[in-house]
Every structure is written in C-alpha cells, then in structure tokens.
Amino acid sequence: MKLGLSPILVSEILGVLAFLGLAICLALRAWRKTNQNGVLFLPLAAALVLILEDFQVWATGGLETMLFTYLAVQAILLTVREDQSSSKKPLLAGALFSLLYLTRPDGLLFAFCGGLAYLFLPSDSDVKARLKPFVLM
C-alpha cells in the first residue's frame, strides 16, 4: 500500500506469474527429458496447465493456490531429478519446501514426502552421503 499499489492487483499479478512459471517449468522438464533420452516427450502437462479453465481461474483469483502449486511442482521436480551431483539442488528444494510450508500449512506434507523421496529413491550416492543435505532440507 505504501507503494500505491492495490493489494488485490499485486496478488493477481503474483498469481499470473506463478501460473506462467508453472507452465514454463513443466515445458522445460519435458524438453530436458527429450534431450536426455532422445525420446520425444511432449509438454502435455504444460499444455494442460495453460488450457484448463480451472488453472486460469486460480491464476487470476488472487489467492495463494497458484503460488502453492508452482512451489510444490518446482520442489518435487528438484527432489526427484536424476542428476543430484550437486549438494545445492537438495538445499534449493528444501528452501522451496520451506516457502511452500509458509504459503500453506499442508505444504509440510509435501516437504515430508519430498524428503523421504530424496533419501530413499535410487541414486549414485548412498543414504549416509545424502543424510546431511536431507537434514538441512
């Protein structure tokens, strides 16, 4: 309000930005999978996010739903990414899970499941090596 912007307008703009970020995130994931495997992965999830009316309503509604969805998808995709060679990716996923929990309390369930997936999904390193980033997560 001190900047002269309406809180309603700002929340709607943030919702639209989260909506676009979600679509871009899903499209980039499909593109990376295509380049990685050589098999064509169509960005169907991104297309569905863009064309489904419910997502469009949530994006312009001014509520936290689109921000929550964007943070959840981004954190989960970082957690289950195959190339966990850097310890920065789990820390970034943990930061996104923290923001997710601050957005809505049920984000704690996503963070718990994401942490368990990070620990127990197959990886190049053993569980002990991944315990430190998990604790920081």
Keywords:
globular; 7 helices; 0% strand
Description:
- This protein has 137 residues and is mainly α.
- Helix content is 74%, strand content 0%.
- It contains 7 helices and no strands.
- The chain is globular and about 50 Å long.
- The chain starts with 6 loop residues before the first helix and ends with a helix.
- The model has no long low-confidence stretch (mean pLDDT 82).
Outline, from the CA principal axes? globular
Output the number of helix runs: 7
Largest sheet: none
Overall SS class: mainly alpha
Indicate the low-confidence ranges by residue numbers: none
Give me the strand/helix succession: HHHHHHH
Distance between the termini: 34 Å
